[in-house]
Design brief:
single chain; alpha+beta; Thiol Ester Dehydrase, Chain A; eleven-stranded antiparallel β-sheet; 4 helices
Length: 242
């Protein structure tokens, strides 16, 4: 069925000031487990010198049911749900040691040529290595094409530093959440959001200046942060909290 299971623990870097697992912490854990799963089937980070392939995440949707504290044991189950020519949807369930559901998530990943930094076709060998389990954790397909709000307020700008860059030579996907939280109004910094959605539309590279905008969708009760290029011509990412 292609389901991979991994035990881990909530680390100090994964918790917020209330000692509960943060959205950034959860995504860090899920990304790590996805990477370890890829490693076990021969297409992980340590295989890049041989395969010249790497995975780049395009979106996340995570939903919390409980927020465990530091050092809580977690059991993460993940699988490749679907494959297209160049991308794969990957889903997750996260349980505690008592088999209580903590969170669930879905994500989309594109296969990249590590030398050219361009998408490449997913071969039958890669598909077979991961297997496929067409079970979705969400009842409806996640919208990965939602657009920036028409009316947003500028909050701040930021110049990308070397510390923000990962092995794919662009800003690490986790740091988008840092940018987004800093753009939220202060009264919402401690709000207990149960769901977070992120779409990565255009990668951000070293020395780029991004501008961060905030808006509130009253109809859907969503706080939305948009990250744009300095000249506003490029939308790099849209993050929703609700």
């Amino acid at each position: 069925m292609g389901i991979y299971e991994y035990k881990t623990r909530v680390q100090f870097c994964d918790i917020d000031e209330k000692n509960t697992l943060s959205p950034k912490g959860l995504i860090r854990i899920l990304g790590e487990v996805a990477g370890i799963h890829s490693e076990t089937v021969g297409y992980g980070l340590n295989h890049i010198p041989q395969t010249h392939l790497t995975w780049m995440v395009l979106n996340w949707k995570i939903k919390f049911f409980l927020k465990p504290s530091w050092n809580t044991e977690l059991i993460v189950k993940t699988w490749a749900r679907t494959f297209s020519k160049i991308s794969s949807n990957r889903d997750f369930y996260v349980y505690d040691s008592n088999n209580i559901l903590i969170a669930m998530a879905t994500s989309k990943w594109v296969l990249i040529d590590s030398d050219k930094h361009t998408p490449v076709r997913i071969t039958e060998d890669i598909h077979n290595a991961f297997g496929e389990n067409n079970v979705s954790v969400f009842d409806t397909e996640v919208d990965d094409k939602f657009q920036e709000p028409q009316n947003s307020d500028f909050v701040y700008d930021y110049k990308i530093k070397k510390r923000d860059i990962d092995t794919n030579k662009h800003v690490n996907n986790l740091y988008y959440l840092d940018f987004a939280y800093d753009a939220l109004p202060r009264q919402f910094w401690d709000k207990d959001f149960s769901t977070v959605e992120i779409i990565y539309k255009k990668q951000i590279k070293l020395d780029a200046i991004i501008k961060c905008f905030y808006s509130y969708d009253n109809t859907n009760n969503q706080h939305i942060v948009t990250l744009k290029s300095e000249d506003l011509s490029i939308v790099h990412s849209i993050i929703k909290f609700y």
